[in-house]
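Hi P.,

Sorry for the delay on this. The queue was packed all week, but I finally got your sequence through. Input first:
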Amino acid sequence: MNKVELIGRLTKDPEVKTTNNNKTVLSFSLAVDRGDKDRTTDFIDCVAWGSTADFIGKWFSKGSPLSIIGKVQTRTYEKDGQNIKRTEILVDKAEFVPKTNNASNNTERNTEASDE
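Then the structure:
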């Protein structure tokens, strides 16, 4: 089974783009803490399409915590005569990260988007 769940922070402001086929797409990087004593952070490349891309682009900015569910995909393309291999997370679902300091305040806006 190919399923990934991550919680991290956006490394820059998201910029939703439109393809020639009029589909929206968002490529972004998520800073994810490993939780080890050395405070190691991994920077994970992600891509979201359609309503999920629109949701992230509308509600999140650099440094915002974000929860995603998706799958790992590897793709290969050619650039300047060289084959480039890229591994990234294809985001199926994005959600706000619940605030832990005030669980009684549950009046958040729509808390998720999914292209399922």
